[in-house]
Specification:
21% of the residues lie in helices and 34% in strands. The protein is α+β, with helices and mostly antiparallel strands. The strands form 4 sheets. The protein has a 6-stranded mixed beta sheet with strand order 6-7-8-3-9-10, sandwiched between helices. A 5-stranded mixed barrel has the order 11-12-13-20-14. Strands 15-19-16-17-18 form a 5-stranded antiparallel beta sheet. It starts with 15 loop residues before the first strand and ends in a 13-residue tail after the last helix. The relative contact order is 0.11.
Length: 392
């Protein structure tokens, strides 16, 4: 394979094709045959818990790690397989790390200019471009400061400017916001989204934060134990989770246990402790089987008083938290516990309420007996008695 770099100034975002990517550390297989295609210019978020393989996949993509099997192509060119490996500096990419990774002996301007060394630009041109990059991230007035003279957020903005200044075909972000406080994290998230998209580079962004992933991504790829379990636009990942793991990891108010009484198209009628609720169902759900219903926070609504209506369950308030716009309640229901149930009115602890479920925000999955499937309500020591059955 030719050793020539793929780093032309005229190149836009890389197209990325990953086939059967395998990576092992000793006897532990961290990537289990991952396939992934990313069109040029897309913003893809790799989402998964710690140990899912997302950082390892990004490091293989960057050339920091070598594949043990499979292949990676950037813009149609083989850059990695079990026999060939193009080093990071020849892949026309840049990385933004969680810990900033700035040169401590260089100023902010020096750090950004350093990223242009391989472009072999005249000194005044490189300096001008670096100054423009710092201005873009709002740090033009701090160009002469060293990293130790900058806050964490300012250092991360220098790292962002350094990443985009060379106009790479691929931008890799490895949990860049995890060290920042909540307010700064939100502001820098917006800045990353804007600047990365304006650069026209292809973006691969690693996070375990579901809200961050949904806010940033054109597409989300969910990994679990080294396998790609679902990929698609944020709306599809949220509304049509392919597996129980995806549904859980992308945010639920809680889980309810029940039994399927009927199927109506894409929805199922579920008996939950004597009450019938209508929810969306996965393909494995059949009449008569036990199921676990995953409930999205936005699918819950507290009803006035103790009113019971269609698709509603009675519950007891066990906790309440003020969230600025209103209150989030934890409700113990007969079939399980629901958290993050929003209402503009504070419901006292111990009070009896009813919660209505939006059928399209609840998904039923065939019940399994894994250890991690123990109902949430048992972990907080809440007891509830079955509700009186009502006609379907």
């Amino acid at each position: 394979m030719s050793s020539a770099p793929i780093d032309t100034e005229a190149q836009a975002g890389h197209t990325i094709a990953i086939r059967g990517a395998v990576k092992r550390y000793g006897k532990t297989r961290v990537l289990a045959g991952v396939d992934l295609d990313i069109p040029a210019g897309r913003f893809l978020v790799l989402l998964g818990p710690s140990g899912s393989g997302k950082t390892t996949l990004a490091r293989c993509l960057a050339g920091v790690e070598r594949l043990d099997g499979g292949s990676i192509h950037l813009s149609g060119r083989l850059v990695s397989d079990s026999h060939h490996h193009l080093p990071p500096e020849r892949r026309n990419l840049a990385m933004v790390f969680q810990d900033y990774a700035l040169w401590p002996h260089l100023t902010a301007l020096g750090n950004v200019t350093f990223a242009l060394r391989r472009r072999r630009l005249p000194g005044d041109v490189a300096r001008h471009r670096a100054q423009n990059a710092l201005e873009e991230v709002g740090l033009a007035l701090l160009a002469d400061r060293y990293p130790h003279e900058l806050s964490g957020g300012q250092q991360q903005r220098v790292a962002l400017a350094r990443a985009v200044v060379a106009r790479p075909g691929l931008l890799l972000f490895d949990e860049p916001l995890s060290n920042l406080d909540a307010d700064l994290r939100e502001r820098l998230r917006v800045q990353i989204a804007t600047i990365a998209r304006d650069s026209e580079a292809t973006v691969v962004y690693i996070t375990h934060d579901q809200a961050e992933a949904f806010a940033l991504a054109d597409d989300i790829a969910v990994l679990d134990q080294g396998e790609m379990v679902q990929i698609g636009p944020p709306e599809q990942i949220y509304r049509q989770p392919a597996t129980l793991f995806v549904a859980r990891f992308t945010g639920t108010a809680g889980e309810l246990l029940g039994q399927v009484k009927g199927i109506e198209g894409s929805h199922a009628i579920i008996d939950v402790a004597g009450r019938r609720v209508r929810v969306r169902c996965s393909g494995s759900v059949v009449v008569g089987t036990k199921v676990r219903i995953l409930v999205r926070p936005a699918a819950t609504r507290v009803l006035p008083g103790s009113e019971i209506s269609a698709n509603a369950l009675p519950g007891t308030v066990v906790d309440v938290a003020y969230r600025g716009r209103g209150y989030e309640h934890v409700l113990a229901c007969a079939g399980g516990t629901l958290a993050a149930v929003f209402d503009s009115t504070r419901r006292p602890r111990g009070s009896e309420v009813s919660v209505r479920l939006d059928p399209d925000g609840c998904v039923a999955y065939a019940e399994c007996l894994d250890a991690d499937m123990v109902p949430i309500m048992t972990t907080i020591g809440v007891k509830s008695t079955p509700a009186t059955a009502v006609p379907a």
